[in-house]
Amino acid sequence: MCTGSCAKCLGVTLIPLAILCTLANILLFFPGGIVSDSNDHITDEVWYFGGILGSGVLMVFPALVFLGLKNNDCCGCCGNESCGKRFAMFSSFIFAAVGVVGAGYNFIVSAVAINKGPKCLGQNSTQWDYQFHNGDYLTNRDLWTACQKPEDIIPWNLTLFSLLLIMSGVQAVLCAIQVINGILGTLCGDCSCCGFCGGDGAV
């Protein structure tokens, strides 16, 4: 398979994932699905913009680069004519590395947020704060009663941050695949068939 075709498949997959991560991060600004009375009521990790920046903005650039690589064909594979294609694949390797960093950032932020739990109004308290420690609420649902407001904040945050965690993990894997694909493309032009091309450059 041509490395350009492989890159296009990865780019097509990354675009919707980037959009979904952005939407998930935006929804986290509405704890429990309602408009918050104060920014202090929103979980701190939401403000790190893991889904918007890490898996959103930083993922759009690699995706667009990957999509553009399909314009290269397999002609001239392993020959002098593939110089431009090699450079294009090398650039995709750089952007793929950026994508891994962005996805990794979102993954770490989401993991920390899940472990800490949401910021909420505790029982017999007038201050919004973190009510859980070291993810203890994940294995003991009885502890969820510690959060009085907003309603359903725990499943809300847990669901959205879990989605961000999973999607950023998928993005990191896809970009890692393109890192390898980019190396192959740099060495072999636009095809992973280096040394196996016919005289006309066909696979």
UniProtKB/TrEMBL annotation:
Compartment list: Membrane
Family annotation (Pfam families): L6_membrane
Highest taxon of source: Eukaryota
Record key words, sorted: Membrane, Transmembrane, Transmembrane helix
A GO CC term attached to the entry: membrane
Transmembrane segment boundaries: 12-34, 46-67, 87-108, 153-177
PANTHER family recorded: TRANSMEMBRANE 4 L6 FAMILY MEMBER 1-RELATED, TRANSMEMBRANE 4 L6 FAMILY MEMBER 4
Protein name: Transmembrane 4 L six family member 4
